[in-house]
Amino acid sequence: MLVDDGQLDRAFAALGDPVRRAMIARLSRGPATVNELAEPFPITTQAVSRHIQVLEAAGLITRTRDGQRRPCHLVPATLEALTSWIDEYRLETERRFRRMDAVLNAMKEQEQ
Fold first, then answer.
1. Is the pTM of this model over 0.70?
2. In sequence order, what are the residues at sequence separation of 6 or more whose Cβ sits closer than 8 angstroms to the Cβ of residue 70?
């Protein structure tokens, strides 16, 4: 799944809030309703609904209809796209550190 800069911006901004990160963590265990997501927080259901809207706009969650229930579901593909984007830079940084370690080790060996 390719993610454009706007999608990345929305997803990272959404994950910048601790309440939304906790909601994502909860949804990683399975679907939940707004009330279930609101349970651990000392905030109004309206505030929880706004957090859900932000997560939906970022493509991190979706809602379905199950009779009168509207459970929220995590969108694993979006999280995978974010992880892939992060991994690209993490792996490049690790390669640089490995090269630097090799140079430093070679310098140490030359000193001895």
1. yes
2. 33, 34, 63, 64
